[in-house]
């Protein structure tokens, strides 16, 4: 029997799909703790990374 995916991997997949389907990234995403944002960035495809990076310049830190 296959192992069930973790909650973190399911959430990352949901966020990844959201970033890919929309032009704007939800501002709350930039409030994630650094270790979660790093984990997300490692699992994003190039287009989602570009969308994530372009959104970083829109919202002030």
Please, could you describe this protein's structure?
- The protein is mainly α.
- The protein has one domain (7-58).
- 57% of the residues lie in helices and 0% in strands.
- The chain is built from 3 helices and no strands.
- It has helices spanning 7-21, 34-42, 46-56.
- Helix 1 packs across helix 3 (46-56).
- The protein is globular and about 45 Å long.
Low-confidence stretches: none
Strand content: under 5%
Instruction: State the separation between the terminal residues, measured CA to CA.
Output: 45 Å
Tell me the Rg in angstroms.
Answer: 12 Å
Which overall shape is indicated by the principal axes computed on the Cα atoms?
A: globular
**Biggest pleated sheet:** none
Task: Provide a short characterization of the protein structure.
By secondary structure, the protein is an all-alpha fold. The chain has one domain.
Secondary-structure blueprint of this entry?
Elements: H1 7-21, H2 34-42, H3 46-56
Labels describing this entry:
single chain, 61 residues, mainly alpha, 3 helices, 0% strand, globular
């Amino acid at each position: 029997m296959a192992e069930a995916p973790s909650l973190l991997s399911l959430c990352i997949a949901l966020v990844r799909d959201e970033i890919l389907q929309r032009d704007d990234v939800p501002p709350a995403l930039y409030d994630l703790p650094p270790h979660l944002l790093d984990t997300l960035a490692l699992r994003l495809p190039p287009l989602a990374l570009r969308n994530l990076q372009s959104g970083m310049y829109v919202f002030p830190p």
